[in-house]
Amino acid sequence: MSEAEATKSVVTNGLEPADLKSADSVAKYWLYSAILWFPIFATFGIIMAIKFIVPTFLVDSAFDTFGRIRPAHVNGLLFGFLSSGLIGAMYYVAPRLSHVSLYKPILGKISAVLWNVGALAGVLLIMNGDTQAREYAEFPWIIDVMIMITLIIIGITIIGTIIKRKERKIYVSLWFFAAIFLWFPIVYFIGNVMWRPPTGALFGLSDAIVNWFYGHNVLGLWFTPFGLALWYYFIPKLSKRALYSVTLSLISFFALAFFYTGVGGHHLLQSSIPEWLKTIAVATSGLMMISVLTFATNIGMTLRGAWHSVWSNVPLRFIVFGFINYILVSIQGTFQAFRDMNLYLHYSQWPVMHSHLALYGSFAITIMGMMYFLVPRLSGKKLWSKKLMDVSWWLTLLGFIIFMAGMMLAGLVANASWFTHQTIVQALPTLTPYFIVRAIGGGIVVASAFIFAIDIILTIISKPLSSLEKTETIGGVRKE
Amino acid sequence: MSDAEKKFEEELERLERTAEKKIRIIKKKTQFKNLFPLLASGVAIVLLMISMVVVAPYIVLLNTSPSDTAHVYTTQQAEGRTLFMNLGCFYCHSQQVRASDWGIGNVSQEGDYVYDSPAALGTERTGPDLAQIGGMRPTIWHQMHDRDPRSVSPGSLMPNFGFLSDEQIDALTAYIQNLGQENLQVEASITNGSSFHPAVPDEYVNATNQFTPMLMTVLAQYDVENDVYNGDAAFGAQWGVLFDAAKADYTQFCLSCHGCSGNGEGPYARHVATQPANLHERIATFPGDSYDIWRVSGGVPGTAMPAWVLTLNATEIRLLASYELSFVFGSARTISGDISDAEGDTFAQTVLNTPPIGGTMQDYQSGKSLYTLYCAQCHGNDGQGDGPASSKVQGGYIVPEPANFTESGADFMYYGRYVWKVQQGVETTNMPPWKYAMTNTEVYQLVFFAQTFSTADDYNTKWAPQYTDQYARNLKGGPVQAGLFTNIETNPVGALIAFMAILLWDRNFEQLRKLYQNARIQRPTKTLKLWMLIPWT
User: Fold this and answer.
1) What number is the ipTM of this complex?
2) Which of A29, A333, A394, B133 holds its CA 20 to 30 A away from the CA of B204?
């Protein structure tokens, strides 16, 4: 594929603004609703970090104990912030790549409302104790139903858009968008055991297996394909380079679909699930590297000669940082899934660091970058403050490093203690310094989240620009 | 341009066209224009993987049976479990003992979670693993800990659950205390004063021993006074075969700790921290067959008693359990001793009727050690069948009476029969088949030692001539009549003269002392005697 051709298929030439207006309003619904989830539920994280240092902090009622705050933090950020942000960006990207207006935009708006109401109600129910008590699948059955309906509605709009597309070639991002909404409803239905409404759980080890199949595929068949699709779109677009290879992206697509689906068992390597299932989990976790490395090669080769734009363009900087973290977390995950590594690292704060590296490091930071890029475009306004955007970048980077280091050290120290047969009660007091480091790092991360949210909100409510200004100053891209 | 060149050019052009065409095809293929095949294959491989990692394990695990610690929750425990899950306790407390974990219980098995929905294996351990916490701490500790964790565990990071009602704390504690419930039932039965023995777990509670009725039938028809079995001979023979099979297993697996007489004084007993059970005393207090079967099958936690279910099948375990009862009731001789005598004679005639060992001092010494270790508890230190376990003495229980080696009875007619009885044991008595515990040489040495219990005449006529070594030949004075220097321990004149002779012959006192000591220990040999008579040589 020639560069010009590729650029043409990636960039949204040939579409009238009117065609995109409906899609952009749906994208606004999703992206705007995502904004507040981030700072609020990141604050829940800092509350937990403080609880690790001052255990009597907020223990007066059930809803503010650690056991309730943690699922609220996880579900609020996963379903509230990350999913909304990624779906919003998808509504921006999909019609542009299909060269057509969105199919049934009203459904898209309904889905945004349903999803946010559902996620908020789910989080409140969890904090009230109405939880199914399975990690990542805590939402009660009624919320599961709402989410399933929403997923199907979104699927209809997206697959409908792709089917009625005018650009015949289907760009790689669109494969993922279409496939996600076929994969994830299946995964969500099985993982939440939706055919058993009262408990939403099976009995015994089967339940653990299904739980972790789902738990890992929230990442593997929901966030990761979204992330890949959006990196496939935004990195070539913002760095003004054509995608390096379609064949590589094809390999990464199918490798992801096959191998990522099977890795859930690596959460249970130390339990008594069937050994062959552990072997499948370890093997697929290793083979997952095929998907990751083809993707990394593809994006890396795409970026060659364009790294200066990563530095000069702040939204792209966020997005590429997210991409790098994705590669890191995938390599880390593969090694953690090997039996001996897993034996050592299991049960400590290290896996907590791992999941933050994935969900915060790659997806949340990517979404921050995309919002800085998209919100001015969608609202037709100038970004309220580029300085704040810069500040939020530096705070993100600094906070991220301190935050990760704290958890990683706490994990390694705990693992080393346990490995020398110290009990948890003996090892726990030695971790306090690392918990303090984590709380400091987490505090900086939360500060950056607030600055991000303030900047975006002030952008949205600021005065509209004249059409002349629009053409010149929109977006976070600095004019060279 | 020549024709050849033209041809070459054309060929080149053709090739280039083909290559371009191929590239176009590849490009066409890699640039998907049709959504359906891509999505269909994408969904198909996801479903394939789901069938492998979700559906297949689900089917495999359908037949999981509950483990010893798993049981249906009581209403209160279920309430406690709901609280445990709703309050998110499982985010910090795992319920999964890994093979690599140390000192927190048995490795968790799939059967542990059978009644759990959802399962709470956990992902992170900020607090201790709770899989088998039940009974490890008093209930009041848990209640205080739940309300204010730092009141009992200073370094704890757990939130205070003081906002819970008393009923909720009780439910939560009831759930926590049932995890790994085995310990709890011991505590309960001790506090109730009902029994020293813990309750039999569900898995074994209905276990029965099909051999118990047979044993009872045999015992009912057995005249202990006269060692006569009055019942059906065929039934007796059938019982005899089962009994001996059980005895063979006992010799191989149990004897090393529990001893051949079941008194818990086997050779290995002194090396284990917890005294092995005295099967004579203990079994009589066992609550029933199910208890016995459970203890043999499951082993005894905290002791060296292994879980024999790993080694033996259910029938063997039940047979063993019924064999142990012979240490309480005695064993019924349902098979005549004549049969084993005849077998022993056949062995003597066809295989072995003279000692394969020379009968040296070393043979005697090791025979003596083995006898003390294995035989003395029944046959007595002096070989008169009056060891502490023998029914000959007060408090003894081994019936029929163990053999008396000082008698020159029929059992000791031939060397081969002697060896045969030691190696194969004696049918339907507690005499074990020692071939499972000793090597052939050890048996020969043991037999040699046991033979020395017989009277001097008997020994000198029957056994001494069969040995080649002078030590054995002269052990009881030898075929030659006793003289001045025999039995110097009891012959002070002989001893004094011998001592003086040695003193005169060699002035190396240290060596002399040794020699004299040896002479005392070994009893004077013929060589020594002659040598003493002519000290000047």
Assistant:
1) 0.90
2) B133
Burial of A256 (0-12, 13-18, 19+ CB in 10 A): buried
Is the pLDDT at A187 greater than 60? The verdict is yes
Mutation target vs A (from B25, B27, B81, B85; most A CBs, 10 A cutoff)? B85
Which of B49, B88, B115 lies closest to A258 in CB terms? B49
Whether the model clears a pTM of 0.95, i.e. scores above it, the answer is no
Q: Chain A partners of B39 at a C-beta cutoff of 8 Å? A: 175, 178-179, 182
Residue type, A406: G
Q: What are phi and psi of B124, to 5 degrees?
A: -145, 145
Q: What does the block give as tokens for B81?
A: 């479990």
Instruction: Report the distance separating Cα B296 and Cα B200, nearest Å.
Output: 12
Which of A374, A392, A364 lies closest to A459 in space, CA to CA?
Answer: A374
Q: Is A167 on the interface with B (CB under 8 A)?
A: no
Q: Is A142 on the interface with B (CB under 8 A)?
A: no
Q: Which CATH superfamily is domain B75-199 in?
A: Cytochrome c-like domain (1.10.760.10)
Residue B185 touches chain A, beta carbons under 8 Å = no
Buried b (16+ CB within 10 A) or exposed e, B458-492: bbbebbbeebebbbbbbbbbbeeeeeebbebeebe
Q: Which residues of B touch A65 (CB under 8 A)?
A: 87-88, 159, 161
Task: State the amino acid at position B316 in one-letter form.
Answer: E
pLDDT digits (tens, 9 = 90+) for A245-281: 888 888 999 999 999 999 999 999 989 899 999 999 9
If contacts are CB pairs under 8 Å, which of residues 67-126 in chain A contact chain B? 67-68, 70-71
Length in residues, chain B: 537
Is B124 in contact with A214 (CB distance < 8 Å)? Answer: no
Helix A224-239 vs helix A83-98: angle between axes, to the nearest 10 degrees?
50
CA distance B30 to chain A (A): 6
Which residue among B38, B94, B158 sits closest to A347, beta carbon to beta carbon? B94
Looking at residue A439, its amino acid is: A
A contact residues 294-333, partner B, Cβ 8 Å cutoff? none
**DSSP string covering B144-212:** HHHH-HHHH-TT--PPP-TTS-HHHHHHHHHHHHHTTTHHHHHHHHHHHTS-SSPPPPHHHHT---TTH
A351 Cβ under 8 Å from any chain B Cβ: yes
Query: Which residue in B49, B58, B62 is closest to A261 by CB distance?
Result: B49
* Chain B residue numbers touching A128 (CB-CB < 8 A): none
**Is the domain defined by B212-329 classed in CATH 2.60.40.1930?**
no
> Within chain B, which residue ranges are assigned CATH 1.10.760.10?
75-199, 212-329, 352-471
Residue A158: list chain B partners with CB under 8 A: none
Residues of A within 8 A of B44 (CB-CB) are none
Tell me if chain A has a CB within 8 Å of the CB of B100: yes
Considering only residues A118 and B346, tell me which one the structure prediction assigns the higher pLDDT.
Answer: A118
Per CATH, the number for B352-471 is 1.10.760.10
3-state class (DSSP) for residue A432: helix
Q: Which domains does chain A have, with CATH numbers?
A: 18-462 (1.20.210.10)
Q: Which residues of A35-46 are buried (b: 16+ CB within 10 A; e: fewer)?
A: bebbbbbbbbbb
Contact yes or no for A48/A65 (Cβ under 8 A): no
Q: Does A61 touch chain B if contact means CB atoms closer than 8 Å?
A: yes
Q: Are A325 and A379 within 8 A, CB to CB?
A: no
- Compare all CA atoms of chain B with the CA of A245 and give the residue at the minimum distance: B30
Whether omega before B400 lies within 30 degrees of 0, making that bond cis, reads: yes
Torsion of CA B386, B389, B392, B394, to 10 degrees: 110
